[in-house]
Amino acid sequence: MNNPQLDKNGNLKHLLSIEGLPRAILTQILDTAESFTGVSEREVKKVPLLRGKTVCNIFFENSTRTRTTFELAAKRLSADVVSLNVGTSSQSKGETVLDTVDNLIAMHADMFVVRHSQSGAAHFIARHVGPHIHVINAGDGRHSHPTQGLLDVFTIRRYKPDMHNLRVAIVGDVLHSRVARSEIHALTTLGVPEVRVIAPKTLLPTDVEKLGVQVYHDMRAGLKDVDVVMMLRLQNERMSGALLPSAQEYFKCYGLTQEKLALAKPDAIVMHPGPMNRGVEIDSSVADGNQSVILPQVTYGIAVRMAVMSILAGNTEAA
Ligand code: CP
């Protein structure tokens, strides 16, 4: 089947979703990111790989981590960066998404980083732009958040290098989570043998087993002997109707506490894509505890996003 993310030679043209990408491309991104981790620690945090290129961040939905790390990543690659504040752009006067994109193309944009509440928005823009322009999905509805999935597996690989001998638990609101979908596709493509999802039935997609995961409704059983605990935010903004009794009840059954974490392996790492709801899905003592790698995830996001942008631009030599 034709993959809109790849060119006729099988090289990455857009990054829209992890689903359908071959293991070799995921490994290329992770290995390239490895070479960029040192750049952020230099006195001059820059390499010239995207010099002369223009990267446009267009975020139709709020973001702290993704937007900022994409902007930093592009600047560290020496690109010119425009971050359009959609709230104060002409979108508010009725301009369509494609008219906004066309106007930025008229300013010679080379790459778009797009976040939108509608699933498929980045695919829609990728179909519209010319062959020399690249589109990166920075999160579309509940569909996909590929760079988050990649930075999560990059973080796991850094702490647990033997990916073929891992048990990973993803806990919480899988139903509304684009992050969970991207993580599951990345982990299974990279050969992680056991991926568990832990959630109440109301927060799991139907047929979730078809994604290659094991399903647990009891958090204590699901956490037993896992190497990685990946917590998800309760996505209240995407819920229609009451799917849960109360936040307190949810925390009691599915909140990560020190007592529940003790069921995982003693050296298990705790992850969360952010933003966190402390006291809803995770206790502060765990979020800030010595097994937490939540802030390193954010740091690695810069190297992973540098890798994706440099691969799309066809220039990956870390200077
Ligand atoms: N993980 C993530 O997408 O965070 P932001 O919404 O802050 O970008």
* Ligand catalogue: phosphoric acid mono(formamide)ester
What is the H/E string? HEHEHEHEHEHEEHEHHEHH
Strand content bin = 5-15%
Structural class: alpha/beta
What does this entry look like structurally?
- By secondary structure, the chain is an alpha/beta fold.
- The chain has two domains: 137 residues, Rossmann fold; 148 residues, Rossmann fold, CATH 3.40.50.
- It has eleven helices and nine strands.
- The protein has a five-stranded parallel beta sheet with strand order 7-6-5-8-9. Strands 2-1-3-4 form a four-stranded parallel beta sheet, sandwiched between helices.
- Helix 1 crosses helix 5 and helix 5 packs across helix 11.
- It is globular and about 55 Å long.
- The model has no long low-confidence stretch (mean pLDDT 94).
- The chain binds phosphoric acid mono(formamide)ester.
- Phosphoric acid mono(formamide)ester (CP) binds next to helix 2.
What is the structure about, briefly put?
The protein is built from 11 helices and 9 strands. It has 319 residues and is an alpha/beta fold. Strands 7-6-5-8-9 form a 5-stranded parallel β-sheet. Strands 2-1-3-4 form a 4-stranded parallel β-sheet, sandwiched between helices.
Write the layout of secondary structure elements.
Layout: H1 23-36, E1 54-59, H2 65-76, E2 80-85, H3 97-106, E3 111-116, H4 121-128, E4 134-140, H5 146-159, E5 167-171, H6 178-189, E6 194-198, E7 214-216, H7 219-223, E8 228-231, H8 247-254, H9 258-261, E9 269-271, H10 284-287, H11 294-312
Parallel strand pairs: 1-2, 1-3, 3-4, 5-6, 5-8, 6-7, 8-9
Helix pairs in contact: 1-5, 1-11, 2-11, 5-6, 5-11
The protein binds phosphoric acid mono(formamide)ester.
Residues 63-67, 139, 145, 148, 273-275 line the site of phosphoric acid mono(formamide)ester.
